[in-house]
Amino acid sequence: PLEDIAAALQNPARLVGLHFFNPVAKMPLIEVIRHVTVAESAVTAAVGFARQLGKLPLICKSSPGFLVNRVLGPYLDEAMRLTIDGFSPEDIDKAARDFGMPMGPIELADSVGLDIGLHVAEGLAAITGREVPAKLQQMVADGLLGRKSGQGFYRYADGKTVRNKTTAAAKDPEVQARLIYSLLNESADCLHEGVAKSVDEVDAGVIFGTGFAPFRGGPLHYAQQLG
Question: Which residues are catalytic?
Fold first, then answer.
């Protein structure tokens, strides 16, 4: 936490966080992280620096996961719980892509690395109220880390993902609803807690940081449409 770093500084007002996204060359967003004792001049300088890099700066409160990872956490967690409930990775990912996501959550988790996913899930558990799935813990313990180990939820051969065919379950409305609603709910929590200041900022951050289907207007705009 920035507050812990600030406590050791002679001038904590100068401390500000910059959170880039991977791959940095392609991802347009930078989260600019403020803490309780930061000077506005430091935040302004960080925002200007991000713009000089050609990036979109999003000011966030110092909080576990900031905005983007905080919202992604429950979405990926729900995807893993769907596998526990018997849905295949292929069907889960297709349901997400059919909604408009650029990549399915299972493939995303495998690409990031399940060990990294476990670390993030542990850090977010208290604030999201979601316990870390035992299945994820076991997979990491078994060395099934995703793409980088050749096996995760998918198997990888010669750098390519080995997939089975999707089934009718990919069209099950429960799959898409559980995935997307978990993301919408966490976005709303972030707004209420002031992680980002406005509906538009939350929506922009989730679109540019996660690839959330932009034609749906962002998670909170979409939630308002749903009612």
Answer: 19
User: What is the distance between the alpha carbons of residues 41 and 13, in angstroms, rounded to a whole number?
Assistant: 9
Residue type, 184: L
What is the sign, positive or negative, of the torsion defined by CA atoms of 187, 138, 149, 156? negative
Q: Which residues contact 33 (CB under 8 A, 6 or more apart)?
A: 2, 16, 17, 18, 19, 60, 61, 62, 66
pLDDT cut 70: percent of the chain above it: 100
Return the sign of the alpha-carbon dihedral for residues 56, 60, 65, 67: negative
CA distance 122 to 97: 27
What pLDDT, in 10s, does the model give residues 82-94?
999 999 999 999 9
